[in-house]
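Sequence, structure tokens reproduced for reference:
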Amino acid sequence: MLKKSLAVVLALVLVAGVLAGCGQQGSQQQGGQQSKAKEIAFTIGAEVPSLDPQKATDTYAILVGHHIFEGLVRVHDGQIQPGMAEKWEISEDKTTYTFHLRDAKWSDGKPVTAYDFEYAIKRLLDPNTASEYAFQGYYIVNGEEYNTKKITDPNQIGVKALDEKTLEIKLKVPVKYFESLLSFISFMPVRKDFVEQMGEKFAADADKLLYNGPFILKEWKHEQELVLEKNPNYWNKDAVKIDKVTIYVVNDANTAFQMFENGETDWEYIPAEMVEQMEKEGKAKYFYDGAEFYLQFNVKREGKPWLANENFQRAIGFAIDREALIKAVLKGVSDPATRYVLPQLAGLEKTFAEEYPYEFYSKNADVAKAKEYLEKAMKELKINDPSKLTFEYLTDDTQRAKLTAEFIQDQLKKNLGINMTVKQVPFKQRLELMTKMDYDVVFAGWGPDYNDPMTYLDLWVTGGGHNDTGWSNKQYDELIQFAKTTTDFKKRADAMFEAEKLLLEKGPIIPIYFRKRAWVCNDRINGLVTDFIGATFDFVYADVQE
């Protein structure tokens, strides 16, 4: 039973990782000391909002966190590998996991213990932490009950350090992707004495964190750059070939690409207008990074009841020509999102999309259908003039975000007569406004944290940590709850499919596209892995050939 359980998990995650190194894969085995310092550099599009493992929510924090922290397990190139735990057992009923930790150290030289993991997981679930990712721990016995204050004793949570090297986690029901989930940043360990010593300053700067991963954060110049260095205390340090990593914060895609052209960085996304040229030169590479982008409606916005109207939302969804947007703004690099769940995510035997084919929206605008929905909405709202159905569209302050906004703005005006204004703000501010629900409609995105449709679907339950829409639907909540508690995997998948259809028919989410990335990479880089689960780039075992 144990071997079969692990095999199922491995099968689920094997499709996730893609070796995208620019040369051959670097060795993951232990080797000798490097005679010359090996350095790499790349850019990210915005400041990392937070590196507190239990509070981090964004793609940049997940990327950096994957390299400076390590959980009980590590997912590399789609495969589950031992991390801080060198081995573990799973009970016959697949609800009790017993992890045995290896000899490992924090960056200050003190040992990493099972108590650090117990503290971190309970901190994730502590309502005072106010973690948006607390729901990831709801599979654990009494995890949800503690987070929602139905119980107040943290000792009732199903996670316990049996001794310094042994951690026991008890689940409510079997969760086939649980090992994969444990590699996510929310489950990274933190040390109680250090967190309490730092107080509110914890994770605010490089010296306000402790590290147990392959790298340490040596320097953090906010809004400018992050510098990572190889962690001399990492248990598998000899397998890590890179000595230094510089991550520049650059929010302009053209500037970032020019840095690559100038030899300042080792890989970079290709700006839309440069894709064709790079393709002709044979330099363009492609991968799906797992991100889905969608319009998200604030259904509680005062003074704008149409934002909560299901027919108004569907009118917007059918009025947008997704294929034309991708061609005009993204230069053909991405796929129209005609449904909500990412097509690559695992189903029972094949992908979820193969087992449950579905298309709610068309790739092109369906203006006739959009107008039908708009007429219904206006009748319900008792509004005769569509120009009165105004709203502000919140988005990031990048050129691509600007062009996307302008395209959608034009589509809605031309096809429905709706006036949309645009508000551009920095990435971090956009996240803050979403959390405060201080927006009308936002162009938002989500990437999968683990290889299962639930990573998208449980976002929209009533009161969910990431449900910044105000939307609540009892039937949807019941479907998700059933999917999370049933032990029948087929019935679980059926329930998730019903939830997806319900979300598209009645929910505040309008999917626009599934992002495909065009990028270039220096030929000297070996063993770099791209992934649509978790960290987009994994350079733990990368190497450089000078």
About this structure: The domain at 50-252+522-544 is CATH 3.90.76.10 (Dipeptide-binding Protein; domain 1). Confidence is low (pLDDT under 50) at residues 1-20, 23-34. The first strand starts at residue 17 and ends at 19. The CA atoms of residues 12 and 350 lie 9 Å apart.
